[in-house]
């Protein structure tokens, strides 16, 4: 096809376009506009700094934050770069040779800045509470201000702020919490009626252990999958109404996804999502893996909820899900005009919370106990002697034996004190601006109670780094309750867990 070339009309419109662009250019980039723009940017910056200064005028002391990344710049540097830099800079050499756990690192910082100090993650202010007195004062004397949960971008994306653990403090959270507590209780949480389920787990562990040891020989075995199956089966039988075989493919996959998801959620690259939330949607690496885990766990739980809905008999609820569905239907059919606080969507996140909050914590506590018993055979011997004397060898211990096994209980408490499986608790948030111990804590500040520091606080524990169950016993060998023992944090829900979980966990003793 032969081109006919531009027409007169095309030339005129091209000239008009040129002229308009040049006019626009002159208008936008005229000296007056450039001066105006610079003035605007400067004014914006000054106002922002002023607002920041005003907002953070009296916050607790802390290290100076870097722009954009806050105080986590060093933390975000990948480990291979840290190793390289270690050759040239002292602070990087320290980071590479002695990587501290976050809780120990924060305890070190408190020695520099005090028991209440500020750090910034990106633009987010966090206040870290260290030591028993400070944590207790905040959580017990100011619960109405410090009980809220923060909107951490990564957590908000995954949980949509539903369920219990990361739901905002308010009517929905209260309703869910109350419902969970009474319903779990009615399905045996902390009661002898749950024990057959725990014993079943124990029998499975013993049988599997024997065959695994025979197969593995001297190379040793990893106990984690066995213990986590047994623990999550207890949670499963209360909430989903079914136990799974520990090798059930679907169940195993869900447990692996949960634990893998938890692991990668604290990896450096994923933590960056809290500074740049769009990273979560990247189609590669840890981001893709975490999204896959989220999708698969949701699909697994949705399938179980749908199965419950299809076979629901409101007169005979079988488990937590049935109870929730019955309550949800009752609210939907009720004639009160108030919007129902129960929904299948919320149910999904509550179940997820129970699994995630309950499985990892209890499994790790059992694993730590086994490790401590191997490290301290003399303590193991005394625990075994007490159990043999009180319970005998014909049966396994029961919740009802609790009061008669003080040394065993003191040992469990000492393992919990030393290890603190949730060392920085679950972050809290200041729901309003408040004065605390002479500092101003602005609304929206994330509050991190360093529970680990409380359990290593030399002002309340003698030789806190030593493993010594006797610290929980008086001269007559009776159990001493100590307010500074707070593995479950300090607060309202925690009393419930303290009373209900310990007896259940205690039954999972190390067998001779
Ligand atoms: C040894 C075992 C456990 C330990 C050490 C532990 C520890 C904790 C800690 C430190 C918190 C944060 C408290 C706070 O916000 O200040 C917490 C919250 C929570 N835990 Fe556990 N936990 C354990 C077992 C369980 C189990 C078995 C369940 C349920 C099946 C559970 C469900 C929850 C829930 C729902 C919350 C959120 C409570 C709320 O926001 O009010 N935990 N736990």
What keyword list fits this structure?
Cytochrome p450; two-stranded antiparallel sheet; four-stranded mixed β-sheet; mainly alpha; 512 residues; binds protoporphyrin IX containing FE; 21 helices
- Say which CATH homologous superfamily of the domain at 153-506 is assigned: Cytochrome P450
H/E topology pattern: HHHHHHEEHHHHHHHHHHHHHEEEEHH
Radius of gyration: 28 Å
CATH architecture classification of the domain at 153-506: Orthogonal Bundle
Main sheet overview: 4 strands, mixed
Strand residue content? under 5%
Which structural category do the helix and sheet elements fall into? mainly alpha
Q: What is the CATH domain class of the domain at 153-506?
A: Mainly Alpha
Quick take:
With 512 residues, this protein is mainly alpha-helical.
Explain what this protein looks like in three dimensions:
The protein has helices spanning 8-28, 31-55, 73-76, 79-85, 90-97, 102-113, 132-141, 143-146, 153-159, 171-186, 195-216, 224-239, 249-265, 268-271, 285-310, 320-333, 344-375, 377-390, 406-419, 451-455, 492-506, and strands at 116-121, 124-129, 428-429, 434-436, 439-441, 446-449. The protein is 57% helix and 5% strand. Mean pLDDT is 84; it is low at 492-512. It is mainly alpha-helical and 512 residues long. The strands form 2 sheets. The chain has a 4-stranded mixed sheet. It has a two-stranded antiparallel sheet with strand order 4-5. 29% of the residues are buried. It has 21 helices and 6 strands. The chain has a domain at 153-506: Cytochrome P450 (Cytochrome p450). The radius of gyration is 28 Å and the shape is globular. It binds protoporphyrin IX containing FE. Protoporphyrin IX containing FE binds next to helix 17 and helix 21.
């Amino acid at each position: 096809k032969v081109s006919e070339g531009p027409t007169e009309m095309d030339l005129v419109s091209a000239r008009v376009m040129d002229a308009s662009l040049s006019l626009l250019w002159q208008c936008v980039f005229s000296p007056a506009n450039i001066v105006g723009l610079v003035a605007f940017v400067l004014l914006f910056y000054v106002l922002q700094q002023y607002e920041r200064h005003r907002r953070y005028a009296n916050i607790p002391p802390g290290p100076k934050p870097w722009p954009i990344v806050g105080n986590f710049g060093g933390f975000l540097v990948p480990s291979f770069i840290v190793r390289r830099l270690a050759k040239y800079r002292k602070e990087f050499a320290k980071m590479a040779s002695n990587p501290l756990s976050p809780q120990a690192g924060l305890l070190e910082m408190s020695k520099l800045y005090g028991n209440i100090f500020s750090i910034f993650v990106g633009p987010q202010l966090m206040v870290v509470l260290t030591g028993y007195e400070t944590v207790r004062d905040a959580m017990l004397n100011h619960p109405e201000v410090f009980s809220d949960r923060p909107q951490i971008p990564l957590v908000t994306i995954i949980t949509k702020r539903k369920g219990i653990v990361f739901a905002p403090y308010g009517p929905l959270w209260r309703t869910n919490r109350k419902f969970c507590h009474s319903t779990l209780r009615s399905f045996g949480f902390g009661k002898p009626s749950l024990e057959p389920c725990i014993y079943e787990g124990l029998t499975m562990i013993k049988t599997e252990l024997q065959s695994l040891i025979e197969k593995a020989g001297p190379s040793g075995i990893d106990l984690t999958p066995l213990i986590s199956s047994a623990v999550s089966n207890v949670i499963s039988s209360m909430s989903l109404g079914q136990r799974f075989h520990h090798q059930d493919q679907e169940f195993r996959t869900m447990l692996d996804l949960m634990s893998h998801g938890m692991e990668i959620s604290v990896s450096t690259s994923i933590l960056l999502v809290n500074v740049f939330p769009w990273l979560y949607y990247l189609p590669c690496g840890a981001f893709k893996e975490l999204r896959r885990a989220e999708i698969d766990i949701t699909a697994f739980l949705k399938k179980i909820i749908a199965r419950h809905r299809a076979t629901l008999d409101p007169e005979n609820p079988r488990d937590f899900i049935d109870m929730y569905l019955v309550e949800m239907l009752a609210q939907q059919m009720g004639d009160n005009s108030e919007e129902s606080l129960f929904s299948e969507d919320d149910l999904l996140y509550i179940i997820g919370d129970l699994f995630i909050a309950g499985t990892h914590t209890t499994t790790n506590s059992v694993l730590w106990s086994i490790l401590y018993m191997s490290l301290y055979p003399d303590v193991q011997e005394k625990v075994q002697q007490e159990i043999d004397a009180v319970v005998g060898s014909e049966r396994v211990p029961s919740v009802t034996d609790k009061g008669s096994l003080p040394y065993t209980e003191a040992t469990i408490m000492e393992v919990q004190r030393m290890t603190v499986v949730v060392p920085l608790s679950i972050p809290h948030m200041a729901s309003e601006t408040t004065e605390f111990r002479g500092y101003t804590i602005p609304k929206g500040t994330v509050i991190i109670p360093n529970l680990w520091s409380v359990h290593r606080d030399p002002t309340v524990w003698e030789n806190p780094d030593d493993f010594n169950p006797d610290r929980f016993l008086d001269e007559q060998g009776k159990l001493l309750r100590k307010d500074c023992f707070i593995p479950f944090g300090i607060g309202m829900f925690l009393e419930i867990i303290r009373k209900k979980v310990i007896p259940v966990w205690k039954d999972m003793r190390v067998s001779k």
